[in-house]
Amino acid sequence: MAQSDTLILPRPAAKGHRFSLTPLADAMFQLLIFFMLSSSLAPYSLLTIRSGPERQQAGEIVPGDEAAPDDTEVQALGANTVLWTLEPEKVTIGGQTFPYDALSAIAEGLALNDDAEVIIILRNQARVQDLARVLEALTAAGISAVQIIQGPT
Predict the structure, then answer these.
(1) What is the pLDDT of residues 20-63, one digit of tens each?
(2) To the nearest 5 percent, what fractions of the chain are helix, strand and coil?
(3) Which of 13, 17, 59, 115 holds its CA 20 to 30 A away from the CA of 53?
């Protein structure tokens, strides 16, 4: 018999099936892109602001609405109370209309009165971003007595 010159190497033992992470990473990346795109479709600054339950003349709750605490009602206006009507890109104070750029100066002037109170009246077109800008200016000036109410429709 002739000897062959082929060398036979032993096969390594099978280690089992390895789990590939590539398809999982692909799926996670697709989900990430989906949620990033879908969350930018409705920016929070364009969401309308809704008020709480409506009240009737005597402070009774309209049927079907939940009761709100009595301290949320607007009391009679005092001498230190200022009404701010919030509309898109402008605020009406005492019958005068101001842009949002002037809010910090107005709030600082109002803060000179220690008992200053602000009632913000929201119009239907008011956006969350508009309210945030007004509240930021009032907070920076140190005015903490703020009430927010829904204006007439």
Answers:
(1) 888 899 999 999 998 888 776 655 555 565 555 555 555 554 44
(2) 35, 20, 50
(3) 115
